[in-house]
Every structure is written in structure tokens, then in C-alpha cells.
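It would be a great kindness if you could assist me with a short task in structural biology. The matter concerns a single protein, recorded as an amino acid sequence and a row of C-alpha cells. Could you please explain, in whatever detail you think fit, how the C-alpha cells follow from the sequence? Thank you for your consideration; the sequence and its C-alpha cells are set out here:
___
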Amino acid sequence: MAIEVRDGVAVVDGVPRVLVTADYPYYRDDPAVWADRLRAVRDELGIEVITCYLPWRHHQPEAGTAPDFTGRTHPARNVTGFLALCHELGLRVIAKPGPFVHAELSYGGLPDWVCPDADPSIEPLLDAAGAPACWHDGAEKRPLPAPFGTAFLAMTTRWLATVGEQMLPGAGAVAALQIANEGVYTSGALPLTAYDYSPSGLAFYRDRLRSWYGTPEEYDAVHGTAYGDWAEIEPPGPSSGPLALADWGRAHAEYLARVYRVWARAVGSDLPVLVNLNPPTMPELDDWLARVRPELWGGISYGFTNWMGVVSADAGAQARYVIAAKRAPGPNLEENWGFAELYDPAYVDGATSFHQSLLALAAGATGFNVYTGVATSGWGPELDAAHAGPYPDCAPVDAGGAATGKAPVVRALADFFAAHGTEFLECVPRRSDAFGLYLPYAGIAALSGGAEGPGCARPLLAFHERMRARGLDYGLVELESATPEELTGYRSLTVPGGPFLHRRVQELLAGYAKAGGVVLVDGPVPELDERLEPCALLAPFATPLPAAPSAPDQESLVMYGEADAFLRSHPGRDVHYLIVLVQTGNEGPIGLRTPYGNVEVVAAEGGGAVLRLAGGEIGDVVVRGVNAYLDCAVEASVRLDGVRAGAGGPGDLVRIGGSAL
């Protein structure tokens, strides 16, 4: 099985597929059970691709010793043997060598000897106040190393190069790599003031200014300042000019891109490389948007995670989740399928994770991950002293190797997308409207507080809420890199208002409007360009926002019931996919408009359904009918034109490869 990643889609042996994976933290388990647990993932869950971190602190706990990948110092370090088992069992692996991995490990999986407290030569990561940015292990706080500090950079590149030289060449199971974790140090969603104000971080910032402006004199001409040397320019504060604030946001985006490229290059492999961004928090949405710019990553593919709440019950979590899935094409690389005690008791039932995995795919993701597929219970305190086993507490395969009630739910989704994933990806989502991200505004709002002046978060969240209230899906477009072709399919484009907008972006939007598109501006219509020089190319074509609707739109797929619904249609065949996501609190069936007439779906609250429609009929379906956490059990069913298919009593409806309804 050879995996490529093209435009965010996994291409397996030349065929685009929905990438369905399961994580197995081998380092937390007894090597004697590795083979049994891998068989359970393959046979019980129907999953062929394993993801696993390679914790640096596990494989190289001492600075003076070489990394152990063969188990010479401890059997659980024999990752070479683990990968050989995967290969023997027909499984492929996405290996995740960090260097930082989180995974509820001490110091996020970094070895203790790279901590600045342990080695004065290691430069600490600093925040805007000059204080070290720390990782919290319970009550203990330890400073994190600056990624571009000379000593730590040498250590990380050596670790990653050793992975590439000693582990990957003979590991036929490894099909792709994931670099870093959720930003750099699970920090993708933190404020722009959280880092990097270290000397190496500020050197990077000034180097970026030099590349953008050429000379201090040119910088001064644009910003209205009087610096004589790059070294005089400090990071901006809340009262700085708007272009300086935008520069810091842009520098953060290029900082993240540089870290990813340096670390990926250090491995020295030609395997595809992905990353997994944590979704934004609500208060730091502008910070996240300013920092997360996959357009800059150059061959490294976007992916994301979900660790921020139960989306069927929390509208804020749902918005953040959808935005993360829409930001760029790529797979969900960590969906919570096993942690109820650590995160939320709703995850004790598979309906919660079923709903969220389907929402990711509906919103734009190209795959989902079961984190973790297997519960484990065999690690020592040097790896993780804060969490008791099993890890996690309610995985689809328990710590004894037995399938739990979640296993059939995972298996149904895996089988559905194994059968139909290629066709699903070929289908085009029904999206008539889009929001245009203008990311300089995100940087400005992140540092100024965003109460007044331009920003991206407020208008984007307002747009999301309007579209959800109308029952409509939408697109998300990054304006500085967009092409006219990307905008062609949308009837309207909502953009944040403010004092300035790149001249090229104004030309793009004016051309879109001339071709019949509607440009809605949420805020003041810009009349300046990126150098704050007069430019009002958009002004003649800008349309004020309409009043928010009080009821669902007539285009909404949902006619009755509390649910979100998404439709994808094939461009060349009479084939459609309908995803229905039932909100917590819904009682009764969900009525839906489809290309074949009205469809009724009965599913558990907090659950959902995926249906394949073809040739005027409903074909394969997976409907979740039970949510034990909410004490809800219904006879899952679908109905079209009076013809019904349902479960034989309270429970799920799963039909894959069966007769059409």
C-alpha cells in the first residue's frame, strides 16, 4: 500500500480514498500483546492504517546514549519490531516522530535533557512579557525550548535524522509521516503573544521583515516610522499601527511554516508529510487564523484534531470544529473515540464520536482517525506519571484486547467509506455561498484585542451562525492566494470590512462581482491598499449585509427536526451522499429534502447518519440509533416515498452492499 497526498486527499495505490486510521500507542503497552491488538484493529475495526507517535523521551531518555529503536534497553522501545508486525499483518503506518507529541506524556514526550532548566545552552521559548512558555505536567511547570535556538535545533534535527536513517529504511509499513503536534507544542491555538519572543524568534521576525521590505528605509516609508536598522524594530503591541500588527501575524504564519519545513527536511525521507492542527479556541480565533496558513507550507499537508467539546451539544465547539475542517483539505488526524474521563462523559458512547467523525467529512475533511483504537495499560512512570491506566478509558478495543460496544460503530463507518470513499470524494458539496478570509485583519485583531477595528473572527463566526441558522453549508476561501476560478462556483462571497485590502484582492473581488457574483462586506468598505495608499476598486461592487433570517432557508435540506445536514453530488452520475447530524435534545425523526424527494431519518440524539443515494433510491446507509450517555435508544431507520428500512428493534441500521431502498 503506497500512500500519496494530493491536494489534501490520500491516494492509496493510485486511488483516492477517505483516509480512515486508528491510533495505537505501542509505547504504553506490553510488546507481548502488540500483534493481538493490531489484529483487533484490522479485524474488529476494519482499519488498515495505524497512526503512532514515536516519543523522543521513550526512545532516547538519556542525552549521552543513542536512540533505541530495537528494544536493546527496554522491550517496549522495539518500534522496529512493532512496524514489522504491522507489515506482516498487512497494515500501514503513519509514523509521528514529533519532536514534541503531547499524547498525555511527561513533558509532552520531549526528553528531560532538552529542557532549558536542565541545560543552560538551550534557549527557552519566551512570551511577550519575556517569561518562559511552559509545559504543565500536573502542578509542575517546565520551560519549553525555542525551536530555532541553536542548541535545541541541533538536537531536534539529529533526533529526526536518526529516525530517518535508522528506523524508516527497513520499515516497509511506514507510508507517511506526521511532523510536530497541534502547532509546535500543542500551541497552534494560543495567542500570538504566547511566543516566540526568544532571541532566535525575534531574529526570525526581523529576517521576515527584511525579506518583505528590503531595507529599513522602505519599511519606514510604509509604516511611517524612523528606524535606522532592523535590530531596532521590536514586536508590535496593542497601540502599534495596523500594518505592524499584521506583520507580526504574518511572521507567525511563516514561523510555523519554517518549523514544519525544517523538521520535515531533517527526517530526510520522501514519504508524504502531514501536520495536525488543533482547532481554534473561541477567544483566540483571530490568532489561529493569522498563524495557520497552509498555503505557505510547501508540500506539507494540512490535517487537524478535535479536543474541544461535544459538537452536537455545544454550538461554539461545532463552529470551531467546522472552521478547522474547512480551512484546507486534509484528514482529521485525531478524533476522540476513547476518552470520557479525561475530556467529557458524553464520549462514553460511540454516538458522540460517530457524529463528529461524520461532521469532519461533511465539512471538508478527507479522512478521520480513531484516537485511540486500542486501550493500553503497560507504561512506566518515566513516560507518564500523571495518568492511570487504562489509556484511554473507553476505546473501541479495551485494554484486554476485547472489542467494546464502540467497535461495530467504527467498523460500520470504516466499511462504508472503504466501499464508497473514492466516489464520496468525487462528489461535490452543495455550497452556494462562501466567506473570504483576509488574514492581515486576523493579525491586527489578535494583538489589538479586536473590540474595535478590523478582524476575521467576529465576521466569520457571525457568517457561520447565519448559515447554520439557514441550514446551509458554505465554503471558506483564503483571499490572498485565491484565484478567480476558486470563486466562480459561489453566488455570494462575504468578506470582513476594514480600512485597507490588498490591491490584488480588490481586483479579484471586483472581477468576481463583474462576472455576476455578490460581494457582501461585513464592516467598512476598504478604500486603501496594503501600503495604505488610496485604492477603492471594490467600493463600486460592495453590497451591505442583509438582515439575518429568522427561520431556516427554503434551500435548507432539513424540513423538520433539530439536525445539520450536508449533501454531496457527483458531477457526472446520479449519485449523492447525505450526512445527517442530529443535535443533542432532538426528539423525533428528521425530515430532509433530497434530489429524490423527501427522506425521513430516525437516529439517536447526538448521533447521525450517512446515506448513499443513487438512481432514485437510497442504497447503503449507516445510522446510529443508540446514545447510552443520553439514555436514548431508537429503532434507526430511513424512509423514502413511504418505503422504510429499519433496525430490528432499538439499535443501529447498517447496510453496506445491500439492496436499495
